[in-house]
Amino acid sequence: MRIDSKRPPQEVCRQGFSFLDVQVALVVFAVALMGLYPLVVMQSKQAKKIDGWVSPKTTYYLVPSSDEWARKLGAVASIQTQNPGVRPPPPVLLIDNGEYGYVEAGSGWGAETQKKAFQETLRWHPAGTGENTATWQFTGIPPGWYDVQVTWLASGNRASNAPYQVYDAAILRGVYLVNQLKAPAGPLFGDVSWQSLATVSISSGAATVILSDDADGRVVADGVRLVPVYNLVHIVAVEKSLTSQDVTVHVAITVKVPQ
Length: 259
Known about the structure:
Elements: H1 19-53, E1 61-64, H2 68-72, E2 77-80, E3 94-95, E4 102-105, E5 110-113, E6 121-125, E7 133-139, E8 144-150, E9 162-168, E10 171-178, E11 188-189, E12 192-193, E13 195-202, E14 206-212, E15 219-221, E16 224-229, E17 232-240, E18 247-254
Antiparallel strand pairs: 1-2, 3-16, 4-7, 5-6, 6-15, 7-14, 8-13, 8-16, 9-10, 9-14, 11-12, 17-18
């Protein structure tokens, strides 16, 4: 009797890496490194360039950018070694009766102290022919669009057609009639409501608002404020270059100023 014996198949077990595997891995790594190397070099050069701009022995000053778009996009300052001095004060965009910038012409103006008035004071004049005026004068205003707002204390003896004139320097932007029998219908500021006359363009750096007594009742001179109006800019995406200082910004704009 013949017995054939067969050896069971053996499992194939692989231990370690062959020389070919190592060669392939090195080739893949070299290809990847060749792609990254220029970026690494450029980044290193940019870092060295930035380090070369400043010295630990020098005093530097950060100066805010004068360009509004630059500030919006993050380029908020430049570096200089000369002391820029004290920053100029911001423009005055609100004037109350009796404050600097408020002027009356003519005669017969009266004064009242009222807790519900802006800063608890107001000026008034009975109906007339327009010879008596109250003027609010704004200077040093950055060019742009402004919402001109006024406030008053409503009462039954007020004018229904109090006339406000708005000027950009000597250019008349418009005449607006306000019903002071009713309370202002607008935003709250300083614990009182304000009403918009109009959104106007101021390009001269100076704005003037004039209220006259050419009305059918008592006119009230209280506060006037200018509120800057901007188109709303939403930054959607920012793309920065790894090889230069170029930046590409994608924005969405909501139009707020008159066209």
